[in-house]
Design a protein that fits this description.
The chain has 215 residues and is mostly helical. It is built from nine helices and six strands. A three-stranded parallel β-sheet has the order 1-2-3. A three-stranded parallel β-sheet has the order 4-5-6, with helices on both faces. α4 links the parallel β1 and β2. The longest helix is centred in the first third of the chain and has 20 residues. The relative contact order is 0.09.
Length: 215
């Protein structure tokens, strides 16, 4: 009904209509900004950026926007890999490098290939898809062994319990596979887990001896 009034309004009502839309935008953004998940993802993104890391997300709104926003606020590179879907919104406004994929497979490869760690916040099917895709690639040696950190132990607790009681107990995965997952409520610990793994992996790379100068 409000949209009908707006479209039918005369020129004299335009300023008030514009203000009404602006207030609605502000209220919507404020509601999202106030969620704990948004605040947490923003903090994690900023922390990584301040340490000199780039942050890559799915490029959309919500938690993805928060991480990109934090990365930009921390002075780091903020990347968004979006996907064409009929019911999804466009890219968020906090992205320095943006690309929209048509195919999930290509998007997943571009997520994993440059990654040094995944920090996973509560989400739905898309989040679970990317989570288990990353775990499968690490488990099978198709991707390097980087941490997969789950934020919010209460949210992920039942899933982890099922993995232990069913997958591990039935021999579908090994104890080493389960160690790929790190669940925490401590945001600093999440960042530290990724950083420490990266530094440990670098320390294991042999350094080639310098060649002697030709005589």
């Amino acid at each position: 009904m409000q949209d009908e009034k707006l479209l039918a309004s005369h020129e004299g009502a335009l300023p008030e209509n514009v203000l009404s839309i602006a207030r609605e935008f502000w209220a919507g953004f404020a509601a999202v900004d106030g969620t704990p998940e948004y605040a947490a993802a923003r903090k994690v993104g900023k922390h990584f950026a301040e340490l000199g890391w780039a942050v890559i997300t799915g490029g959309g709104p919500g938690v993805m926007e928060a991480a990109n926003r934090g990365a930009r606020e921390g002075g780091g590179l903020s990347v968004g890999f979006n996907i064409e879907l009929p019911h999804e919104q466009g890219s968020n406004p906090y992205i320095d490098i943006s690309y929209t994929f048509k195919h999930f497979y290509a998007r997943k490869v571009c997520f994993v290939k440059p990654a040094e760690g995944f920090v996973i916040f509560p989400g739905g099917f898309g989040t679970l898809d990317e989570l288990f895709e990353a775990l499968t690639l690490i488990q099978t040696g198709k991707a390097q062994n980087f941490p997969v950190v789950l934020i919010d132990t209460d949210y992920w607790g039942e899933m982890l319990g099922w993995i232990r009681s069913e997958l591990l107990a039935d021999g579908m995965i090994s104890a080493e596979d389960l160690e790929l997952l790190h669940a925490t409520d401590d945001l600093d610990e999440a960042v530290r887990t990724v950083i420490e793994c990266y530094e440990a992996n670098r320390a294991e790379i042999p350094v080639e001896p310098k060649k002697a100068d030709a005589q």
